[in-house]
Amino acid sequence: MYYIDKPEKSSYDKFRIYKIKKGDTLESVARDLGIDAQELRRYHNMYCEIPDLIEADFKSYLEYLILAPEKSIEAKKEQTEKKYQKVSLASNYTLPFVADKINNDYQVNYTTVFGDDVDTIEMKVSVKWLATDRNNYHLFEINKGSIYVNNTIPDTVMDELAAKTASVLYPLKIVVDESGKWVDIYNYDEIENRWKDTKEEVLDYFEGEVAENYIEYTEYALENSERLFESLSSDYFLRAFFNGIYVSYTSNYSFQNEVFFPLEKDEESKFAVQQKIDSILDESNLVKVEQKGDYVDSGGEASFGFDPWKGKFNASYFLDEHSYCIEKINLECSIEYDEPIKVIVQIESLKNEVTQN
């Protein structure tokens, strides 16, 4: 809408104003005041009279420009500066792993796709740092809450049996190296002793072939520490959270890497990825780390004359700008078999919800 006639002068006494001079433009005034031009126009248009609205630029008759209060301007400047704040790394472009800052609860969601079958699993997981040794290996305690499958708590006898046998693992204490990668189980003996009591409860409450199979499977997994580690290697949370992202990067904040993830049954899927850190904090002032790449086919199919399998791996880690602790993870990997398989892992800190309560 355009106004040709000059309107009557309005009183803007209650506002902080700028008197427009001959030759002034929106861009030139914004530059002189150190304020974003769009922000300058937005604030003026919120409080001015309708005839004084700024469209592409100042109207020829416009005498006064309404400015935001000083505090508002300073806040905007700080926000703008923060928006473009560079991520700080340690020596050798290493992403710091500040293990002793990690004591948090997370909401965890898995979505698994196999052909036309889609399942979702939800749970809460707590991660707590306990200690660090002289070799810079870290001890963590992991606990898991109730598990929901497809938005409901499992209530069949088989589900109860699975939950009962799985509960023997927690609290789980694990060893994590200086890059944030899970490398060992610390409390194997404690878990084995818990199983002795749990096994008696299972035998008292459950019976039949299914119960016997669960007991046999659990005892196989608990035969020794190495076998338990191998069994837990298919745990999506442990693999995604303790993925070893705290390593040295190049001067351009990226490098080529190989990532292994338990997507295939009883096998490690291999992906060739570009791993990089966004050099600038994101809009939520978080450090963003990405792993993005393609599935590396083992070559077995090609030897029989079939086309190599293809797949993708995409993971985004969002870290606190000060502690570098994980605030959120979005991970998705897939392989195009005859029936495509895909896993989506979403992990998000519950810290904000606790603070609000």
UniProtKB/TrEMBL annotation:
Ranges for domain LysM: 16-62
One Pfam family linked to the record: LysM
InterPro entries for this protein: LysM, LysM_dom_sf
SUPFAM superfamilies listed in its UniProt record: LysM domain
Name used for this protein in its record: LysM domain-containing protein
Organism: Flavobacterium johnsoniae (strain ATCC 17061 / DSM 2064 / JCM 8514 / BCRC 14874 / CCUG 350202 / NBRC 14942 / NCIMB 11054 / UW101) (Cytophaga johnsonae)
Lineage: Bacteria, Pseudomonadati, Bacteroidota, Flavobacteriia, Flavobacteriales
